[in-house]
Amino acid sequence: MFDHRESGQKFFDPKGRQYDQMAQAARSGCQNIIEGSERSSTSKDTEMKLTDVARASLGELRGDYEILILDRNQLPSSVHSPEAIHCGLHTQRLCFV
Question: How many domains does the chain have?
């Protein structure tokens, strides 16, 4: 059995703290977008604050994915790559494939 710890390679533990943080950032980002949208008719200030919080959460998630990809000695692919276009991600700046 291959042990990542012995090889010196970094690995991603789906039960670890990093996974929990990434999952929470994704949930938080989505929930703040939804809540901000729901409050847009009553308070533009609250809408903007929640949108900013969502942007920060999703930015944190993106940073974590960048680290994960780079730790695996992979590089982000171009948004114009066939994989990104196939995934529907060609409207974003980076796609990790």
Answer: 1
Task: Identify which of 50, 56, 57, 59 has the alpha carbon closest to the alpha carbon of residue 93.
Answer: 59
SS3 of residue 77 by DSSP: strand
Q: Output the pLDDT for position 32.
A: 92
Confidence of residue 31 (pLDDT cuts 50, 70, 90): very high
Mean pLDDT, range 33-38, rounded to an integer: 91
Distance CA 27, CA 44 (A): 22
Give domain status of residue 73, yes or no.
yes
Q: Is residue 1 part of a domain?
A: no
DSSP letter at 91 equals T
Give tens-digit pLDDT for 46-62.
Answer: 999 999 999 999 999 98
In a domain, 35, yes or no: yes
Helix (H, G, I), strand (E, B) or coil at 79: coil
- Structure-token pair, residue 65: 């994915």
| Domain annotation covers residue 50 | yes
Domain that holds residue 55: 16-87
